[in-house]
Amino acid sequence: MTWCRSMRRRPGVGLAAPQIGIPLKIIVLEDIKEYIAQAPEEENKAQDRRPFDLLVILNPKLKKKGNKTALFFEGCLSVNGYSAMVERFLEVEVNGLGRDGKPIKVDACGWQARILQHECDHLEGTLYVDKMVKRTFRTVENLDLPLANGCPKQGVR
Ligand SMILES: [Zn+2]
Questions:
Q1: Is domain 4-156 given the CATH code 3.90.45.10 in the classification?
Q2: Catalytic residue among 91, 119, 124, 141
Q3: For every one of its 157 residues, what pLDDT tens digit does the chain have, with 9 covering 90 and above?
Q4: Facing residues of 87 across strands?
Q5: Is 119 a catalytic residue?
Q6: How far is CA 30 from CA 48, 70, 142, in A?
């Protein structure tokens, strides 16, 4: 699929078809050692971020598993250069069709669960900025600056 290249070129860990003008419910996601190695190890651990192979999901249906959530900074290729904290479910299940048209089910937790929620939101026209903790919105250059007063702490809740 050529538009997996759009995701890799940026590079991002996920992309939804509407982001590149394709009006279909398709998401692609992938996280690899090389990207993960760019972040501090303790951050990856806190976010439960581990590599996984390319996933292509057609007509994904997302369901939360449990009520645990995690609050971390995330970004988006469609809101390039910015980041904000977003609360996401810690564990989700996604059912859909794979690139071969056969049913697939993905059980995800941690960072992969966050990516799936972010990408499925795109299919409904929702961006992370619609769900973010507004006072944490910042440029990526300012990512490490302290949080404003009254902001919740990052982590699993
Ligand atoms: Zn996005």
A1: yes
A2: 119
A3: 666 777 777 678 999 999 999 999 999 999 999 999 999 999 999 999 999 999 999 999 999 999 999 999 999 999 999 999 999 999 999 999 999 999 999 999 999 999 999 999 999 999 999 999 999 999 999 999 999 999 999 999 9
A4: 71
A5: yes
A6: 15, 20, 26
